[in-house]
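Technical annex B. To support the medicinal chemistry partners, we prepared a structural model of the target in complex with ME8, based solely on the information shown next.
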Amino acid sequence: MSEPFYITTAISYPNGRPHIGHAYEAIAADVIARFQRQRGKDVRFQTGTDEHGLKMARKAEEQGRTPRELADEMSGYFQEMCDALDVKYDRFIRTVEEDHHRSCQALWRAMEANGDLYLDRYEGWYSVRDEAYYDESELVDGEGGERLSPQGTPVEWTVEESWFFRLSKYQEPLLALYRDNPDFVQPDSRRNEMIAFVSGGLRDLSVSRTSFDWGVKVPGSDTHVMYVWVDALTNYITGLGYPDDTENFRKFWPASLHLIGKDIVRFHTVYWPAFLMSAGLPLPKKVFGHGFLLNRGQKESKSLGNVTDPLALADQFGVDTLRYFFMREVNFGQDGSYSPEAIVTKTNAELANSFGNLVQRTLSMINKNMDGVLERFETAGDDKALLTIVQDACRQGLPHAFERLAFSVGIEDWLRAVYACNQYVDEQAPWTLRKTDPERMKVVLQTLYIAIRDLALAIRPVIPTKADAVLQQLGVAEGQAGYADMHDEGWYNALVASGHIVAKPTPVFPRLELPEEASD
Ligand code: ME8
């Protein structure tokens, strides 16, 4: 049986339409899911929307409608975004769903049975924008002297009866978790932040609210709804069938990876493992806090008027181009910046001019100069050397980097192999060999043909549609597009034996033009 791999994204607040950060996270998670599927793992991928809480309730009120109406409309846009960006999830979870309420209540009861919940009065600061409680000591002063959260969001003084979770009890177990499992929080910079935060001492956490009712009801305490983060985090187990003893739960829990942004690492690496320990459930293997995507170095916001619709970007430049740019340009874990110019320049240079051109000229020459007929052949010194470079990059460099979520490093390895192929074409000059040594020309073109298959297979998780278009032109069957298939050296001779004819190729990576307004 293949090894299970459960990956999740954060579930987004559907208080507005999806923004570029949502698209970035969904794409990164999809690349990982596709990569692991290609590695032969049994992958389950969950994403969704986080629909309860004060932030949703207030936004709906502002718009004169119910939170449910707002959630229903906006959640639909998040699903559309995933579909449009080729993000292939197994479940899109909405926290308003009935099974999710049942799951939250079961987790609550388990924590209660462990003696970790008690009723008291909360008095302190709350940020609706972050849906987070803050200590006085964490607050900063705004320009007008107002108190702000460390994230720069407004806070309000809140006093109400509340259930509390004994978070303080978990300080030592959490520190032991970080110490014994260095991979639990990644990258290291976030791990260090969390160690510092927990070492500073943990206060018990307010986990219910009574001043509004848009949430999951606390079992046996009808005037309380659960704090939205208790409800939100639970989505990861609801999606596997918790609290029932389902096959999915047994197979996929604990999660292999929670992929989230850097602003919500505390919730995932302090609160969530503490809730799970309290309920006696296994802990996720890894939480990775990626960086933020910035528009020309700036955070997108309505007030700056620089909010970009990710679907408009995908329409303009193409889905795979956008996916490639995000994974290639940003050092995963750090913040990254994008602009139409950068997307066009980078992808023209690397996809259109380098990989696309390699594919196009190799297939054209085979079609034209060899009537599309492939032959069995022996590789010699330069040919073998090239294939070694390509195989090292595609079978070692890229997959090992992707395993560590170092996407830009892996893609760079892949690109070096693409450049090596183009250099080989220039040096071997098959257009000259056509006249001087046609047999040698065939060897050169066929060597490239073999190299291109590895290159297309390796990059397929990032640009699935484009890579499949290349593989299809190469005559590689759909069922032979896994990483393990790269090691099947017999595929080429089988293709020759099948009498495959290389057709006149259709360009897969057209050059992009800069949009008018961006080139001003
Ligand atoms: O935080 N670049 O939802 P959310 C990259 N509902 N990622 C970004 C980003 C940016 N500019 N802006 C936001 C929530 N994100 C909660 C999560 S999970 C149990 C509950 C990321 O809609 C952000 O870090 O505010 C988070 O991982 C995701 O987008 C959803 O953010």
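Notes passed to the chemistry partners:
DSSP finds 19 helices and 17 strands in the chain.
The mean pLDDT is 95.
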